[in-house]
Structure formats: structure tokens, C-alpha cells
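Q: How would the C-alpha cells look for this protein?
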Amino acid sequence: MRTRTKILIVDDSRDFQLFVKAFLSEESYLVLSAGDTLQATGSAIREKPSLIVVDIGLPCGDGWMLLDRLKANALTKHIPVVVVTGQAKIGLEEKSKSKGAAGFLSKPVEKDTFVNTINALLTAPTQRSAPPPTTLRTLT
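A: Here is the predicted structure in C-alpha cell form.
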């Protein structure tokens, strides 16, 4: 039996979580969800998803804080993150990429655009390599 690719959706809107889960499940992805930054950090470390979708406005910190945490942690820094937000401020896409996000989408997002973005990131050459080992070695 083939293992389904895990995607973690981090959004405080249960409706958005369910909406995304519905169409990613059609694509045979296993969709996990978290409603705040604390749940998301634990889920990312424990579940080791292949990709994480993050909203900017979240309880217990914000999406920027979560993105910083994920990219600073040796266990999660290799996981691509897509920022999806309903905020309409100028410069959010650039800020996302400067913080290490692999993609950026504005809400409301169309199903095809969302799915195509996820598929493209998961099939990118850098995603075919294995994640880094869970233990760190120093070279002498």
C-alpha cells in the first residue's frame, strides 16, 4: 500500500480547513490540520508533513512567528511552506519569501490554483530528496 503524502493546514478558520481538506483529499493527500501556532509546531515535528499551508492571522502568535520557528528547527526547516492569507497588505508575498516560504496565495483562493501550487511544490526536484537526518553531527 502506498503511503499518502501528508499536508498540514494551519488556519484558525475551521471552514477553510474543511474546504481545503475536501479538495486535497480528492488528490489523495492526507490532510492534517491545526488551529494555532502551538498545535502547528507540535504537529509539524510529530507528523513530518511533506508541505505546510500557513495563514498569517493565527492565535498563540501569528503565521510569521510560525514560519520563523519552522525554518529555524532542524526537524522542519526542509518542509516547504505556503502562506495563504486574506490580508491585502502590499509586500506580503515578498515578506513570505524572505522568511523562507516556498509559495504565497491570497484568499479567496480558487481550487485549481491551490491544488496546482501544492502539486508543483511537492514534485519540485528539491522535494524528491530525503529530509535531513534527525541527529546532527559536527565535522572536525
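The domain at 6-127 is CATH 3.40.50.2300 (Rossmann fold).

Residues 128-140 have pLDDT under 50 and may be disordered.

Upvote if useful.
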